[in-house]
């Protein structure tokens, strides 16, 4: 299949070795071609703007912005972009967060050689791709919500606060965060104060612990 009719893919993972392995799988398919790579969530957004891919494959645990944060932003700025999460986490919390962020598929790295190509094809057909454990989680979640009359707790913090929380926990200064998110230092400080108050925390160390528990950064 000529490259211009092949599915154009953006691949984002902070480990170059993983990207190389995944690229080998994808480039072995005549109808799939990797047109851009990124090492973190923020780079993924920039690459998507520059290359306008058909499909983004995002790792979850990446610096600056996680794959889930990047997926939310990409869903906003490029609604037609199909998004797959490729992750080592066999975890219901991340799976549901991925669906909420706009992903149409969730693939485990441990079986990427078996599932990833099929997931890419499903995504481009407009079909969801879920690994077997995710299907069970989805059914359990549906039954639990049906029993509870559909009650779903609200997010504790906003998406912008979550972005700032992750960057604070990664050790960025207020000025660096302002530069990354293209907002003022004063806005960063206000969000940071709101985070401490909302979460009942005292300082950056406690914010970092919270970020680890919330899966925003790796311990």
Automatic annotation (TrEMBL):
Keywords: DNA-binding, Phosphoprotein, Transcription, Transcription regulation
Pfam family, one: GerE
Domain HTH luxR-type: 150-215
Keyword RNA-binding: no
Residues modified as 4-aspartylphosphate: 59
Gene Ontology MF: a single term: DNA binding
Annotated Response regulatory domain residues: 8-124
Keyword Transcription recorded: yes
InterPro entries tied to this protein: CheY-like_superfamily (IPR011006), NreC/VraR/RcsB-like_REC (IPR058245), Sig_transdc_resp-reg_C-effctor (IPR016032), Sig_transdc_resp-reg_receiver (IPR001789), Tscrpt_reg_LuxR_C (IPR000792), WalR-like (IPR039420)
Gene3D superfamilies: 3.40.50.2300
Top-rank taxon, per record: Bacteria
UniProt-listed GO biological process terms: phosphorelay signal transduction system; regulation of DNA-templated transcription
Protein name, as recorded: DNA-binding response regulator
Organism encoding this protein: Actinomadura craniellae
């Amino acid at each position: 299949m000529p490259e211009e009719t092949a599915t154009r893919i953006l691949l984002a993972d902070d480990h170059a070795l993983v990207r190389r392995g995944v690229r080998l799988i994808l480039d072995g398919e005549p109808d799939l071609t990797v047109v851009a790579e990124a090492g973190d969530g923020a780079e993924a957004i920039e690459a998507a703007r520059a290359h306008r891919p058909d499909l983004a494959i995002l790792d979850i645990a990446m610096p600056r912005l996680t794959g889930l944060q990047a997926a939310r932003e990409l869903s906003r700025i490029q609604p037609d972009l199909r998004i797959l999460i490729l992750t080592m986490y066999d975890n219901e919390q991340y799976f549901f967060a991925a669906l909420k962020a706009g992903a149409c598929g969730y693939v485990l790295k441990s079986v990427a050689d078996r599932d990833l190509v099929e997931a890419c094809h499903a995504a481009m057909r407009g079909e969801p791709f879920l690994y077997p454990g995710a299907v069970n989680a989805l059914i359990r979640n549906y039954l639990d919500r049906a029993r509870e009359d559909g009650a779903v707790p609200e997010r504790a913090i906003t998406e912008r606060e979550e972005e700032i929380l992750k960057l604070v926990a990664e050790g960025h200064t207020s000025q660096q965060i302002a530069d990354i998110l293209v907002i003022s230092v004063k806005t960063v400080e206000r969000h940071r104060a709101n985070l401490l108050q909302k979460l009942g925390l005292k300082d950056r160390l406690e914010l970092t612990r919270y970020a680890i528990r919330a899966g925003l950064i790796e311990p």
